[in-house]
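In response to reviewer comment 3 from the previous cycle, which asked for concrete evidence that the modeling workflow produces usable outputs, we include below a single protein chain processed end to end. The sequence was submitted unchanged, and the resulting structure tokens are shown without manual editing.
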Amino acid sequence: MKVLIIFSFFLFASVKLSAQKNNDDWNSMVAAEYSFAKSATEIGTRDAFLKFIADDGILFRPTPVNGRKFLTDSPGRPGLLSWFPVCAKVSINGRMGFTTGPADFKKDKDSAAIWFGNFATVWERQSDGEWKFVIDYGNSCNEQNLSPLEYSNVLPERKNEHKANNQASPDELFMIDNEFNRNEKNSNYVMIYMQYINEESRLLRDGHYPVIGIEKIAGYLREHKGIIKLIPLGGKISSSKDIGFTYGRIEQVNSNNTEARYNYFRIYKKDGTRWLIAVEVVGRIEN
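The workflow returned the following structure tokens.
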């Protein structure tokens, strides 16, 4: 009996410590997002992006490019981009996570916003322990009334945990993306989505508020039919194999036989043994 009690105690302690560490990782990532947004008000949007982007970070300008090189080669522009997270998740090992929420743009800090939208960002902890973002994309929509995430800005010091995040291969996520290429005449397009979403999944599309949950996503997809072909271009999976992302291009033939090209960016989160779409952003590539 004593052995069982001792074993139970240490099991409980281990679970509690693991949960505390995951909460600390979540807090530090969300704190990095808020620090990023604050930096934009202090040093400008371009310089803030340069401060927080990883060396291999991806931006869409308008198609995927190395964001650091693009920003370094581009002059800063006037205006203030503001944003805050409303949803954030972090991997079990605290090496990768994502944030999403609303954004707006003003000509200057004293003027009214002239653009509204949403962002989705994947963060990765670097070898020095700092969070940097590895991909960022968003959409345009009308103004939203949302509450920002609360977090603790008193963060514990991390010691001897600053290891590189050796990602697993994203091939299994590419295989899921390619599943959507089996949608002959859109007959099973919605059905395929249903296999990879849950009530927390959200789609970000221009001109729409975030579409969240199974029923709303299914309704949106039925109203926006077309034959699509997904072409994955890149992605990553955390070393704990529970959060990852893909990005690429969509070629679509619409119901009126017009053709269009889009960027796509998907954030995946594992639910048990299943990969599910946590956030999907699709934006049209203008000719």
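The chain has two domains: 20-140, 171-284. We consider this sufficient to address the reviewer's concern, and the full set will be provided in the supplementary archive.
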